[in-house]
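Both lines are quoted verbatim for reference:

——
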Amino acid sequence: MKQLFHNPLFGLVIAVLLLAITPACSKRGGAGGKDSNIDYWTCTMHPSVREKGPGKCPICSMGLVPVMKEQNETEERRNGETGTSPIRPFADSSTHSFVVPVERQQQIGVTFATVEMKPLSHSIRAVGRVVPETQRVWRVVSRTPAYVQELGVNAPGEFVKKNQVLMKLYSPELLTTQRELIDLLRSRDGTAKSTHSARGDFQRLIESAERRLRLWNVTDEQIAKIEQTRQAEESLPILSKVDGVVQNLPVTQGANVAMGSSLVEVADLSVVWVWGEFYQDELPMLQIGQEVTVTSSSYPGEKFRGQITLIDPFIDNVKRTGRVRLDIQNPDLKLKPDMYVDLVLDMDMGRSLVVPVSAIIPTGKRNIAFVDKGDGKLEPRVLELGGKFGDVYTVNSGLKEGERVVASANFLIDAESKIQGALKDFDSANRGPSETEKKE
């Protein structure tokens, strides 16, 4: 080994090797050498990304890798020599257009849709529950201790007419007050020749007795009958004030009821309320007076019309919904309390430029559609979309009326465009780094 190091020929070989390596090193590692030889920076997972300097991929946040100019030129020459790719980059770099032959479009199932102005409507659906209108529910409460002498109705759910006898009450206090009224009437009539002041005193006592009877749910007609016949009613009949349905009957025949006890409830169901629940993001679209269509599985094909009369300002903390009240005419009493119904609110949203949902490629920050330019030429567009209405989106900018866009297989078009680097600056595709660059 010592002889090898002392050999002059060995030193000459080492010198030649150093002279050969130095230019290459200076070219790649000198000041500004490697940076000046980098064409662009890209992501190994998303070759569509092309940046001027190092950093992180805007899609997956991976570190960008450099693509050298020599490598890029070599691959471009290789692709140009083969000429077998089904997609050819279009020369118009300002619009980032590319060409997919019509035959290839037919193979992958590409279809087109026309961008057009359409009248838009939006339907909101919800579930509601029928309840009686509170102002149409008549509740009878005992205003004096009494006994239920006789019931005129047997159970909740019975239909009753106005002035129908619901029950008869026996009350010693009522009977005493009636007899007192009769005695006062007789005394007043027996002192016809008395002074005017004495007759006035009797009249005040008579009016006081009448007021006590009214406070005990005795009607003016019943009081007038007592005064005409001069006979006290042993039992007080409770009459229905409305045509309706018995909603609650908490007493039984012969029961003893205290003052303030509930006797009967009658609901007038000719007009009912429907409480619907709408999600909180739908509430801003609701207004007082809007008409709502109400349907029920009990009456297939039949529709009821209601109007929004109240929007509850409080949101349910669990379901994140708000209650909305509808008033509905119910003359046939088809809508019954606690019945569940379906609500549909149709709103006219005017006219707008629309594009099919299937034509949009969402990339996270942007929405892209491919516009047909004819003869297989396609142009990617970044769109500003509005709301979604069924199977279409409204378009605020990016498209014009009458243009055609790819409506199906657009993800295949997007994938093939990435192979050829058609979408350069926005979700545009480009070839990834070569195997040599990966090894480095």
In short: The CA atoms of residues 155 and 439 lie 90 Å apart.
